[in-house]
């Protein structure tokens, strides 16, 4: 059971209901972590705005999901791991790729560099080496895409923290964390 209120359709204020309606239009349902965010409509608006804008960038959906899977495992967020396993499958990732992502790599050489960089950003609290930036550039990532990787890390840290702090009920097929 969630330690922070999960706003339901029945308990939602007019503003919360409008936000839920917008989410339902885009993805067909309102996941529980967004229902926790909805306790503060301002926080939910901020997250949805950042999420929408960040997904307009150059990184493809598969790379974004690879990063999300790697960080969910690294940060031990079972909710996020479960959610991004389902979303990753919908984005075209297979089981072997998802497992590789959870282990901090990828079957795709370029994406492996992005996943490695994302994990290093978390591990070192952003204090990564020049060599890591050069490695990303040598893999074919532009500075814009490196900034997008950093943005994805920030968004995923936010959702990992929310998922763990709230202990939000998992409303995706449950995936256990690796030991």
TrEMBL record:
Pfam families: CMD
Domain Carboxymuconolactone decarboxylase-like: 41-103
Record's keyword annotation contains Oxidoreductase: yes
Keywords attached to this entry: Oxidoreductase, Peroxidase
Superkingdom per UniProt: Bacteria
Keyword Ribosomal protein in annotation: no
GO MF annotation terms: peroxidase activity
UniProt xrefs under Gene3D superfamilies: AhpD-like
Coiled-coil regions, chain positions: none
Family annotation (NCBIfam families): ahpD_dom (TIGR00778)
PANTHER family reported for this sequence: CMD DOMAIN-CONTAINING PROTEIN (PTHR35446:SF3), SI:CH211-175M2.5 (PTHR35446)
Protein name as it appears in the record: Peroxidase-related enzyme
Source species: Cellvibrio fibrivorans
